[in-house]
Amino acid sequence: MSVIDLRSDTVTQPTPGMREAMLQAELGDDVYGEDPTVNRLEAYLAGRLGFAAALFVPTGTMSNLLGLLAHCERGDEYIVGQQAHTYKYEGGGAAVLGSIQPQPVEVETDGSLDLERVAAAIKPDDFHFARTRLLALENTMQGKVLPMSYLAAARDFTRRHGLALHLDGARLFNAAVRLGIDARDIAGHFDSVSVCLSKGLGAPVGSVLCGSSELIGKARRWRKMVGGGMRQAGVLAAAGLYALEHLVERLAEDHANAARLGEGLRALGFEVEPVQTNMVYLNAGEQAQAFKATAAERGIRLTAAPRLRMVTHMDVSAGDIERVIDFFASVRR
Ligand SMILES: *Cc1c(COP(=O)(O)O)cnc(C)c1O
């Protein structure tokens, strides 16, 4: 019985084509700027998203951290979603390592931050306050795609208030595929964008921060300082390049599988949040722990959160989704 792992889209194994690309990658010392494959990945993604420069880093956490450190100085502040990864799930890195104060704001049901609330959180120019410098958004946000009209409004808003605009685009390509648009149309609204290669794109390691040459220059310095300068990193960058060239369009399959899972569960009478991309949220309540344990016996790996998140990815097939629906049918009584 094959295992179906729905805990996250980070659990994927590199495909044979990806492994071959890693094996064949031309390598050099990237701290000297001499790894041709890293250079190719950075130039490729910067170009594809419409930025002047990009930086390959080990993780999305580091990519977001370097973005914040490059935009903000000690004593500055960034406004961010209360439930956003860059606030809640990155160990407080910006505060710990950058002396940058986060100002969290509650996230709206569509994944956006209400711009009136953000405006109210911006500090006046007064020495009592931290200097508000940056607004950080996330797209997709818990599987939700931010509306394009909202991105335009956020861009306009931040310009008016003299703030920079950063996107945690860990799943930027899921958003673009869902909307049927070029990822550049989303990225173009931002001063910097962080993209994860190791989520739905299926690479084993890596994220890329994109921005202006000046911003990426600062981020490169910070990357060295926090220990993220890697040597023959092209072996990893090759996987990311392969993913960007071959595995973006197939994200639509993950979205279709998630939609089918959501429908199947709803038909069984479960409470399921609307599905937009590759995440399905089921209100499992007190049954979450029991679901996890029983599912494990059937080769299905779940988390035990009451708001149970199930994530589709390239190692979950349409047939697997039917197996998962059958499992939930069996525990539904
Ligand atoms: C996974 C994730 C990150 C961080 O990526 P890591 O590589 O796990 O550090 C950042 N933001 C979002 C929205 C993520 O899902």
TrEMBL record:
Pfam family, one: Beta_elim_lyase
Tagged with keyword Lyase: yes
InterPro entries to which the protein is assigned, alphabetical: ArAA_b-elim_lyase/Thr_aldolase (IPR001597), Low_specificity_L-TA-like (IPR023603), PyrdxlP-dep_Trfase (IPR015424), PyrdxlP-dep_Trfase_major (IPR015421), PyrdxlP-dep_Trfase_small (IPR015422)
GO cellular component, as recorded: cytosol
Residues with PTM N6-(pyridoxal phosphate)lysine: 199
A molecular function (GO) term: L-allo-threonine aldolase activity
The Aromatic amino acid beta-eliminating lyase/threonine aldolase domain, residue ranges: 5-282
Assigned keywords, A-Z: Lyase, Pyridoxal phosphate
Any single biological process term in GO: glycine biosynthetic process
Cofactor: pyridoxal 5'-phosphate
Keyword Nucleus: no
Subunit structure: Homotetramer.
Family assignment from sequence similarity: Belongs to the threonine aldolase family.
Protein name listed in UniProt: L-threonine aldolase
